[in-house]
Amino acid sequence: MLPYQSLTKPFHPETYLKSWEAVEKKVAEKGFTWASLYENYEDNQYMSDSLLLVPEMMVREIENASRAAHDIFTKTYEQIVKNPHTIHELGLPIMLWDLFQKLGKTKFSYFTRYDFIASASGLKIIEANTDTPVGIVESAIAQEVLCNEHKSKNPNAHINQKVKSTWEQIIRDYDIRSSDTLYFTCADWHDEDKQTVKYLMELFPQQAKYVPLEQIVVDKEGVKTPDGESIEFLYRLYPLEYFLEEQSGTGEPIGEQFLVHIINKKLKVINPPAALLMQSKAILALITAKKEEWYTRMEQAAIEKYFLPTYFSADSLRDTYVKKPVLGREGGGIRVVTNGRILDEDVDYYQDQQAVYQQYFPMPDQTIDTWDGPYTGKLLIGSHVMNGEPSGLFFRVGGFITGNLSMFVPYTTA
Fold first, then answer.
1. pTM above the 0.90 mark?
2. How far apart are CA 379 and CA 27, in angstroms?
3. What confidence tens digit (pLDDT) does each residue in 303-324 have?
4. Would you say 46 and 407 are in contact if contact means Cβ atoms under 8 Å apart?
5. CA-CA distance, 32 to 138, in Å (whole number)?
6. Residues 260 and 386 both lie in one domain
7. How many CA atoms lie less than 13 Å away from 207 in the CB half-sphere?
8. One domain for residues 78 and 202
9. Which residue range(s) make up the domain with 117?
């Protein structure tokens, strides 16, 4: 368990809530507006104002593990491009297969987050968020405010510069001219996504405009804004597979026509389609299956050190595993089984998807302060990787399944 500092010692409910609300106001003014989340008919605390004290050596090891993980994912992507038949094993919608047959030469993902579990046995990656990673605003904005409140060093102070450097790389790779406009989109009703898009858009160094997803117009000629402006470059904080079910501003389905424009290069999206390909948790099973065939000895050593054995069936793991839908998000559809006993499961979402089975690796306990007093949950470490470089950490504490209501906790180095 990592040590932590509290803004309110000892704990008194009224004093704590007053202090927390003061901090919430400060982070909201800077763009982090979901310190609490309304779900299950009640307000839920999402931001803890505890401050984790993380050893500097541990931060460096997480960065090393992030580089290794990204290198393995990059090598895996290269192998998939050489062996396109493997795409059929990844549990992706058939309607997207044609899209993946024309993968571009850009990086498979520019904004990525890898999730790690830390223990005495070392760090283990449990999944990669390569398509639409969030947690950036927490790591950049809320982290800074809370570290200032604690009068502590902010180890994530470099995130803004990392985002800017990533945009510069994207401008080069996509050949975005100074006269071009990069449009940013997400579901307009989703506060977290909208504020994340706003944060990223403010750091883009050239022309940029926001267009709500609900207002995008798709026809045979191309993708347009409600005012008829042609969209050639689009940053989307929205899962690519969800577009298959979306409607344009005219009420017509976006679906296949939207994908056709990407295939024909009328529309260039960020993160690119390859990001969804690599988002499939079947990638982890593919890495396990192809470890001896696709990777060098050094890469095999990295896989053994940082990756958990993952399979397309539970046979190899018997009664201790985590079942994961290949395109599940926010913990949806996951089942945690140890010694034949279900520790936790989500049965509301993604039950119709192909699943993979990952070796169960227990998450460490972590105590933080909350509205209801000290809370001990499970610690998960998110590591942002932008343009292939480690770019800041994102800590959450929750249940056996890290879902939407797992709490964000800031950190400093000790």
1. yes
2. 23
3. 999 999 999 999 989 889 999 9
4. yes
5. 7
6. no
7. 9
8. no
9. 1-155+278-414
Q: Taking the CB of residue 374, how many other CB atoms lie within 10 A of it?
A: 12
Decide if 160 is inside a domain: no
**Does residue 339 come out as left (phi exceeding 0), alpha (psi in the -120 to 50 range) or beta?**
left
Residue type, 202: E
Q: Which secondary-structure segment (H or E) carries 217? A: strand 217-218
The amino acid present at 61, given as its one-letter code, is: E
By DSSP bridging, strand 51-54 and strand 365-370 are: unpaired
Computed from CA positions of residues 263, 265, 268, 271, in that sequence, does the dihedral angle turn out positive or negative? positive
Q: Which helix (H) or strand (E) holds 101?
A: none
Nearest CA among 360, 328, 364, 324 for reference residue 341: 360
**Domain membership flag for residue 298:** yes
Element (H, E) at 114: strand 111-119
- Among 214, 236, 270, the domain boundary falls at 270
Given a cut of 80, whether residue 229 has pLDDT beyond it is yes
Sign of CA pseudo-dihedral 22, 27, 31, 35: negative
Higher pLDDT, 93 or 173: 173
Neighbours of 33 (CB within 10 A): 15
Task: Give the type of residue at 357.
Answer: Y
Residues 395-412: pLDDT tens digits? 999 998 888 789 999 999
Query: Phi, psi at residue 94, to the nearest 5°?
Result: -55, -35
Compute CA distances 49 → 54, 143, 149, 150, 374, whole Å: 15, 10, 9, 9, 12
Phi, psi of 204, rounded to the nearest 5 degrees: -75, 130
Run of H or E including 62 = helix 56-82
Residue 155 identity (one-letter amino acid): P
Residue 327 CA to residue 96 CA, distance in Å, equals: 13
Give residue 173's pLDDT: 95
pLDDT of 83: 92
